[in-house]
Amino acid sequence: IMNAFGLIQTGFILLCTTIICSHQCNHLLLQQRKVIESSLRLLDKMGKNFPQQCLREKMSFRFPKQVLRPREKETVRVAIEEIFQHIFYIFSKNLTLAAWDGTALDQFQNGLYQQIEQLEECVIKKRTHYCWSKEVSRLKLKKYFQKIDCFLKDKQHNLCSWEISRAEMRRCLQLIDKVTRKL
Amino acid sequence: AQIGPPGIELQPTNGDIKIKVSPPEANQGKKMWVNDLSFKYNLVFWENSSNAQPRSKNIFPVDTIDDLAPDTTYCFKVQANLPVEGKEGLFSPVSCVKTTQKAVNDLLCAANLRVLGLNMEFHLHWENQYKQPVSYNVQYLIGYLKRLNEDYSGKWVGVPGCGNTSGTWCNVSCVITTTGFYYLRVQARAGHNKSCLSSEVKVDPLKMNEIGPPGVKLDISDTLLHIQISPPGGPEGEVMRNNYVLSYRILYWKNSSNDEEGAKVKETKQTVATIPDLAPETLYCVKVQALSEAYNKSSVYSQEECIQTPGEKAFPLIILATFLVALVAVLLVALPLVFVLYQAYSKIKYVFFPACQPPLNIEGFGGQLCPSPYLSAPEEPIENCSIIESMITYEGNQIDFKDYKHSKQSSRDSGNYSNDDNASGSKGSAETLEKQII
């Protein structure tokens, strides 16, 4: 019975790794890199330099870097999509006090959203489940973003909390950028 | 963990049904599924009559179902899914509502909206069959707003330059960027406050856009054909090219039999290409298309450009002949020139920097011209001549002779006596020396 179970698991994993190789989802990989590039640019564009008075309130969130260590390429790509979802969620509300450039922010969100939407389409078409959901480091990733969300809520989404979060997201995207260049 | 049922609100409007879905755990403080924007909602609805087939549709949190029969009751239920994780949630309770009559403004509404894009320039076209004059107002919505749980109906913005047009198309490029989706709709207005909103059209810019043909320039050298490709979109098309990661397919063939037979293909990622080993004295024709592998797109082919390869033998001979002519010309010109220059040089040197000095007996001649000063003449030995008048007779010859001798001696060298004296003196001294030594 154990042998059979082992075989099924291996088969399952093999299924999981073919998710983005379909022809229709080809441009997804190229687009992912472009989205990261433009997101970094737009993050810079939407606000000014980090305000000095917010340095006191700086917090260390500790992004779980092991999420991006490529054991399998596909796992890393799916992790990146989930990160996009989290960032999209964080930047979707209570932005009044941040006073950022609305156009840049719109384009930033729009780019992330398009990427999320297209991945979902590919997944639905192929009707396979992600192995990513079984990953342990996924929980660490969720915890990281929850920390940022709680930080923003505690500070009532004031200017400094937004600027700190923006700097943190920038760091996160830069890490992702480095990883995708190696893939 | 299981995803709970979402909430559903229905509102019949103008023959359609507006749906608002509230995410599972909407009013809870502590949530299991924190990111409520990650849900994708699956709507299942059917006509409330027997033998009705249920239809299934993916919807946004706030959405409109059109394409329904008026004055009919429909029933709806919705579930929240996380497709990336393969999780499907529980269905909401079923909710039924009756559709209203559709307002009779149909003809006024713009219909058949379509977007045509070429090199990222997008034009929206529509049709209208209203008999009276209509003015149109094109509006757009940024795609991601539909994903949020709020109502986006107030977030439509007019496209600049497309307000109050009477034509049936408009250039919407100013609002469309390469990142993200957009929705477009047209509001039609006629006199007496009649207006109608058309249905929406979704724009996925990079997918919808057509890549235009590139430009081609040919150049020939010997048996090499140089192809210069000018990328589509010109200087403003840089963003587009960057997103597509364009490559080029070159088609070239011999135009000898007016056939495209044996057309050869060359693919390149660069905008310059070289084709070697061409046959001499043949007309070659080339056309190029741009490709995006990632998006599976290709442009139409460019205009055909043709060029003739030069003849084989003539060419080296021409080179040799040119070389010889050039050599002869150079010699003909250079040698006399060198000769003339040399002559001029020597004349100038002769006049201004003479090699020999003027003779001394020409006093003062060129005293200033000759830079070399006169050398001081060495002292010439001066003979002290004294004439002794002696009478030479036969009688006192010998004496005279003696005297003469003496005089001779003296005349010859006055220092002789002194020499003798010296000699004797020196002899004496030598003797004294010897005496001293002993």
From TrEMBL, chain A:
InterPro entries: 4_helix_cytokine-like_core, Interferon_alpha/beta/delta. GO terms for cellular component: extracellular space. GO terms for molecular function: cytokine activity; cytokine receptor binding. It is found in: Secreted. The keyword Transferase does not apply. Transmembrane segments: none annotated. It comes from the Eukaryota. SMART domains: IFabd. Residues 1-22 form the signal peptide. Its main location: secreted. Keywords: Antiviral defense, Cytokine, Disulfide bond, Secreted, Signal. One of its GO terms (biological process) is immune response. Belongs to the alpha/beta interferon family. Has antiviral activities. This is IFNA2 protein. It comes from Neopipo cinnamomea. The lineage of its organism: Eukaryota, Metazoa, Chordata, Craniata, Vertebrata.
Automatic annotation (TrEMBL), chain B:
The chain crosses the membrane at residues 314-342. Residues 405-438 are annotated as: Disordered. GO terms for molecular function: type I interferon receptor activity. InterPro entries: FN3_dom (IPR003961), FN3_sf (IPR036116), Ig-like_fold (IPR013783), Interferon/interleukin_rcp_dom (IPR015373), Type-II_Cytokine-TF_Rcpt (IPR050650). The keyword Cytoplasm does not apply. GO terms for cellular component: plasma membrane. Keywords: Membrane, Transmembrane, Transmembrane helix. PROSITE patterns: FN3. This is INAR1 protein. It comes from Neopipo cinnamomea.
